[in-house]
Design goal:
Blueprint lengths: L4 E10 L4 E3 H7 L4 H8 L3 E3 L7 H16 L8 E5 L10 H9 L5 E5 L5 H14 L6 E8 L9 H4 L4 E11 L4 E9 L7 E2 L11 H5 L6 E2 L1 H22 L9 E4 L4 H11 L10 H4 L6 H11 L7 E9 L3 E9 L7
The structure holds oxa(dethia)-CoA.
Oxa(dethia)-CoA binds next to helix 2, helix 6 and helix 8.
Length: 335
């Protein structure tokens, strides 16, 4: 039983400066701008320098989110990082962020939910506040997929980009903030999207490195079909839980994997194209960072007014999915 409502007090995002255009991809693999744009909608993506890690992106996004929320790092109770590209297998990237931020009293852990990670982090973090256990939670969706992308595999390397998005969660007035979640998983499809090497099944060895097992392997068209179906179904179920219908949605923030996936899913859901945020053309698929970066861009552009009804929906490795409906009222946090 929830004790109180939860809202987003501030958002902060970060993408690296280095841009890889489709022309750059043409120099790496047998592909072309026309194929990439027609099949995915992607025109460019961002890539970190060799020395930059996921926690570095988290730090930039977190500092901006804390400043926007007017919350001090030392007042945070919990930090959750959703990522599939942690700095290390362990300790958790959230612990590295906790130390670097000086969030001295915060607990910290990571979630591995692929591209649905931001929604899962939002659900998890908000439950700690709703239950009354914590007051200030920092969630971050961040990935440096370029570190696990095979830049000799044209079917995957053109898709991904690096980035981070953070949000500070605090209590909200009743009826404002988060309204409902829909989360799910289908673990029997683990092989459709997987990083096979380096875990306990195939520990790192000369053989796994030679077999390029430390890179993303994806059955693209199977994931595509799943994505279109689940984006529409998860959205509908989430809206139903919130007592809303598709026509109530003012802004839809979908995971940015492929423009065709977004358009097909939205057609099934019957949501107008002008309500749907799209930035996949400029960033590609940034995994757990996709949704918060799109949301932040829309906020900066003044597209999201107080009181707007938002629906966020994502899917990813697992396979997993997550959707969240909320009333956008940035919660006012006294510092
Ligand atoms: O966040 C979750 C993770 N991922 C996703 O959501 C991705 C979901 N899947 C997709 O977005 C699409 O399936 C892709 C963009 C990956 C592929 O598009 P598709 O329309 O499903 O193409 P396909 O895999 O069926 O391949 C069609 C053809 C193949 O050639 P043949 O066998 O028909 O001769 C591929 O070899 O396109 C070829 N192809 C390419 N050609 C030029 C595959 N990648 C490329 C490329 N450039 N980069």
């Amino acid at each position: 039983m929830d004790v109180r409502s939860v809202g987003i007090a501030g958002i902060g995002t970060f993408v690296p400066k280095n841009v890889l255009t489709n022309a750059d991809m043409e120099k790496m693999v047998d592909t072309n701008d026309e194929w990439i744009v027609t099949r995915t909608g992607i025109r460019e993506r961002r890539k970190v320098d060799e020395g930059t890690t996921t926690s570095d992106l988290c730090m930039e996004a977190a500092r901006r989110a804390l400043a926007n929320a007017k919350v001090k790092a030392e007042d945070l109770d919990l930090i959750i990082v959703a990522t599939v590209t942690p700095d290390y297998s362990f300790p958790a990237t959230a612990c590295l962020v906790q130390a670097r931020l000086g969030a001295v009293k915060a607990a910290a852990f990571d979630l591995s939910v692929g591209c649905a990670g931001f929604i899962y982090a939002l659900a998890t973090g908000s439950r700690f506040i709703a239950s009354g256990m914590y007051d200030k939670v920092l969630i971050i969706g961040a990935d440096t997929l370029s570190k696990i992308t095979d830049f000799t595999d044209r079917s995957t390397c053109i898709l991904f980009g690096d980035g981070a998005g953070a949000a500070v969660l605090t209590p909200a007035e009743a009826g404002k903030g988060i309204l409902a979640f829909e989360l799910g998983s289908q673990g029997d499809e683990e092989k459709l999207l997987v990083l096979p090497g380096g875990g306990s099944r195939f520990p790192a060895s000369e053989e796994t490195v030679r077999g390029r097992q430390h890179y993303i392997k994806m059955a693209g068209s199977e994931v595509f079909k799943f994505a279109v179906r689940i984006m529409a179904e998860a959205s509908a179920r989430c809206l139903d839980k919130a007592g809303l219908s598709a026509s109530d949605v003012d802004i839809l923030v979908p995971h940015q994997a492929n423009l065709r996936i977004i358009e097909s899913a939205m057609k099934r859901l019957d949501i107008d194209r002008d309500k749907v945020l799209v930035n996949v053309d400029r960033y590609g698929n940034m995994s757990a960072a996709s949704i918060p970066v799109a949301l932040d861009e829309a906020l900066q552009a003044g597209k999201i007014k107080d009181g707007a009804t938002l629906l966020m929906v994502g899917f990813g490795a697992g396979l997993t999915w997550g959707a969240c409906a909320l009333k956008w009222f940035p919660s006012k946090e006294e510092s």
